[in-house]
Amino acid sequence: MQAKRRADYLPPAFTISDVKMDVRLHPTATRITSELQITRVSDHSQHLELDGDNLSLVSIKLDGEIFEDIEQREDTLIVRNVPDTFTLTIVNDIDPQNNKALEGLYLSQNTYCTQCEAEGFRRITYYLDRPDVLATFEVTLHGDKAQYPTLLANGNPVARGDNDDGTHWVTWQDPFPKPSYLFALVAGDFDLLEDSYTTTSGKSVKLELYVDKGKKSRGIFALESLKRAMKWDEDTFGLEYDLDIYMIVAVDFFNMGAMENKGLNIFNSKFVLADQRSATDEDFFNVESVIAHEYFHNWTGNRVTCRDWFQLSLKEGLTVFRDQQFSADMTSELSNRIKHVRVMREHQFAEDASAMSHPIRPEEVIEMNNFYTVTVYDKGAEVIRMFHTLLGEDGFRKGMDEYFRRHDGQAVTCDDFVAAMQTATDIDLSHFAQWYSQSGTPVISLTTMFDERKQVMDITVAQHTPPTADQSHKVPLFIPVAFDCIDENGKHYTDVDGKIKDGVLLLDAPSTTLHFTGVESPLIPVVLGNFSAPAKVNNNLSVEQMLLVFRYAKDAFNRWDAMQSVYNWCIAEFEKGQGEQIDDSVWNALSDVINNEADNHELLGECLVIPTFETLCQTRQRVDPNSLNSARSAFCDAFSIKLASVLKRVFDSISTDSYQYDQRSVNARRCKNVLLNHLARTEHGDSLVRQQYAAADNMTDTLGALKAAQGNLPDAFEALMQNFESEWNVDPLVLDKWFGLHATTERDDILSQLSLLKQHPQFTINNPNRVRAVMGSFAFFNTAGFHRADGAGYKYVTDYLLELDAVNPQVAARVVTPLTQWQNYAPAHQSLMKAQLNRLLGHKGLSRDMFEKVSKSLA
Ligand code: HT7
Ligand code: ZN
Q1: Is ligand 1 within 6 A of the CB of residue 293?
Q2: Residues less than 5 Å from ion ligand 2, measured at CB
Q3: Average pLDDT, whole number, for the chain?
């Protein structure tokens, strides 16, 4: 299968200025008539080549006359010898009911909806399906009025009517030229929540939120979130909404989280529906941030879009950064930052270390769907955050203003973004721009030299990016390293040469040395405050020094991170079989931390979370998954037992009143549930867990009790899970939590449990949420089950992937990710994992999505 390369970009030979579409909905034979205004923009020799995938062509006319000088190839339609400007009218049929890949137009649960990003429009009609062709669209939808009373498309509704045959029609006009990936239509029967928003300049915008019948009250929070996002974007970036109406539709069958189609966002219902009984605090948080993310795309993505898909991070990295800033303003800066860092360390660093490593602007792609990655999104957002650090709040805003001034209405590149930012700073950004082209995780290493007699200390800060699968040669990057230095009494120091400015060292060379004077005892460097760059740190601190960092560092992120390092060190002791020998002074210090921070529920809640298996893997090589997992578990046992009394005391001190979704209550619930998780390993566990489950008036506490019971209290877990199932069996979205808990439970018979889950009446391979809840949870998070020493976990997932790939390749290619990350494991596991990847690769008819990931992982 052919890869496309970024370097091979060519502008289109033709462009399309206006599209008129007529869509007659039918489950197996939807008829599309599209009238395209086309103009040649290159030399005369070229034929018109339209993209098309799985379409039945009915007819084609050029300027109103039947046109036959065409050639249909597998995924293109060649229209030969066309004039310089012309109207092309294409009629084709498609089969939405049998579209289980959920790309293009599909019919699920009696709702028609579309997903066109990245290359789904070509499954609807023949088109120049690339983001640098921008056209206005007028779309008329026809459908059965009783079954599909709601007919929606992008833009504003301009006409509607009824036909005698029981069908009705609506015409929608979108005045903003857009690429085809932002096209959308929806037809169904929904409950509607309505509201309005008046922009700062006085424009009134209708807000409409469409949800499954009977779910109206669960949509209120999403609608309120939308208004907060609209206001925030005006206040923070001066960006207002531009159409008269903004619509959001929640659907149950969706490949990803949500899609920012112009004026008509389509959402996975998981990121819209939330109320206290059915959704956790985390769900509420996610709803607000995804609603905001899609809304923010209206400017960063829609008004200014990508020239080609290699530039995806232009819109995604920037929009993730914007939604992160919004969420931090709406909730709390610290817990947000920790959340993002966890994603980076658990998933992005692992991607960098795998065969799928790529820069935030990839160089080579076989299937674009495979590049909606943590690297493009989350590392991309970290790169934008570094711009923000370098330019400051005002400089960043200036750069953004210039970006919109230059490029509104255009399809542009990451280089264009950097150039706009360059106008707002004296720092030369050309070196910094290497972050776009270099993959891999830089490691910042610190070495210290202390001269007690002269009372001086030198700290050398060096950077090194290990080679990655896609790039063997690395260059030094331009890295903003937030830098603090403390002594054992908590006194802060800065370097004599002033290389550290405003608390940040701009590291632009392989290494630099900082000099400190007046130093009485060895200094402790405290680096990467607020995770100022997407890097790893080799700081070689002793456990005593880590505890001092927790005690004295100014930066709350550094304090949290110090605790993570303490746990990491303890787990390493357990791995060496020396866990029992951990000195009492360490346990006493941990007890002090809990006691001292007992009232700071936010920090304590975060600090009591033990690093996950996935995070621990990133600081180890050739991991034997079962020994690391057991060492982690042994540490958790020791932690709970040794600290039981202080944990219980703080647990009892946290009162949670009746449910409110506000930051203070979220922090208290979170802290209490983290404590419960530890206490579940103690003698108090069973009664505390059952009490909390019985008393819970909200899903956060219900799930907190279930998670605490999982793996620790099998009897309680069994009983409570049964109760949960009987309560939520009718609601698959909520039942996904139950599926996920079962799939991540570490038990010897987990594979037969998975088989039972797959036979559950609510499970279907056609629904990506169900598949992710069962197979995704197992493959990503059931360490003991997936990494069974006999390889049966790998085989089980592979068997399922073979089935899934034939139904929904996009989802299959996501679930295969843990198998492709074999590099980090011990040789015995590597060969078992590779054997399954080879099975996949040898399978006839493997999708492009899977082929790309599997073949790269074996290369
Ligand atoms: N821009 C969207 C990315 C996307 C997507 C969404 C839903 C289903 C399939 C998809 N393929 C790509 C989502 C976003 O980042 O906002
Ligand atoms: Zn996005």
Answers
A1: yes
A2: 316, 319
A3: 98
CA 678 to CA 651: how far, in whole Å?
10
The model's pTM: 0.98
Ligand in nearest proximity to the CA of 320: 2
Give the torsion through C-alpha atoms of 546, 547, 549, 554, to 10 deg.
Answer: 150
The model's pLDDT over 431-469, given as tens digits with 9 standing for 90+, comes to: 999 999 999 999 999 999 999 999 999 999 999 999 999
Q: Name the residue with the closest Cα to ligand 1, atom 4.
A: 117
Of the candidates 783, 806, 803, the one whose C-alpha atom is nearest the C-alpha of residue 793 is 783
Residue 31 DSSP SS3: strand
Question: 323 CB under 6 A from ligand 1?
Answer: no
Nearest atom, ligand 1, residue 301 CA: 1
- In terms of Cβ atoms closer than 10 Å to its own Cβ (0-12, 13-18, 19+), residue 64 is exposed
Q: 207 alpha carbon to ligand 1 midpoint, in Å?
A: 21
3-state secondary structure of 575: helix
Contacts for 573-577: CB closer than 8 Å, 24+ residues apart: 574/631, 574/632, 574/634, 574/635, 574/638, 575/627, 575/628, 575/631
- Please list the residues that pair with 71 across neighbouring strands: 78
Distance 117 CA to ligand 1 centre (A): 6
The answer to whether residues 722 and 741 touch, using CB atoms and an 8 Å cutoff, is no
Q: Which of 99, 116, 117 to mutate to test the pocket of ligand 1 (most atoms within 8 A of CB)?
A: 117
Say if ligand 1 is within 6 A of residue 260 CB.
yes
- Among residues 545, 538, 695, 684, the alpha carbon closest in space to that of 619 is found at 538
266 by Cβ neighbours in 10 Å (0-12 / 13-18 / 19+) ranks as buried
Ligand 1 neighbourhood includes 255 CB (under 6 angstroms): yes
User: HSE of 590 in the Cβ direction (CA atoms, 13 Å)?
Assistant: 27
CA of 436 to the centre of ligand 2 (A): 18
Maximum distance among all alpha carbons in the chain? 98
Q: Which ipTM was obtained for this model?
A: 0.98
Nearest CA to ligand 1 atom 12: 117
Residue with tokens 């009705």: 168
Domains plus CATH for the chain? 195-284 (3.30.2010.30), 305-436 (1.10.390.10), 442-540 (2.60.40.1840), 541-682 (1.25.50.10), 729-859 (1.25.50.10)
316 CA from centroid of ligand 1 (Å) = 9
Q: What is the C-alpha separation between 209 and 775, in angstroms, rounded?
A: 31
By residue count, the chain amounts to 859
331 CA to centre of ligand 1 in angstroms? 25
pLDDT at 630: 98
Neighbours of 497 (CB within 10 A): 11
Give 392-417 as a DSSP string.
Answer: HHHHHHHHHHHHHHHHTT-EE-HHHH
Buried b (16+ CB within 10 A) or exposed e, 420-435: bbbebbebebeebbeb
- The residue whose CA has the least distance to atom 2 of ligand 1 is 259
pLDDT at residue number 583: 97
Instruction: Please report the beta strands in 304-424, taking only residues with DSSP state E, as ranges in sequence order.
Output: 305-306, 364-365, 411-412
Q: Which residue positions in the chain have pLDDT lower than 70? A: none
Catalytic residue among 117, 260, 288, 294: 294
**Residue 448: count of CB within 10 angstroms of its CB:** 17
Of the chain, the percentage scoring pLDDT greater than 70 comes to 100
Contact predicate 122/51, CB 8 Å: yes
Ligand nearest to the CA of 368: 1
The protein residue with its alpha carbon nearest to ligand 1, atom 14, reads 259
602 catalytic residue (yes or no)? no
Centre of ligand 1 from the C-alpha of residue 262, in Å: 13
Contact 253/107 with Cβ under 8 angstroms? no
Q: What angle do CA 677, 682, 683 make, to 5 degrees?
A: 130
Q: Is 316 in the pocket of ligand 1 (CB under 6 A)?
A: yes
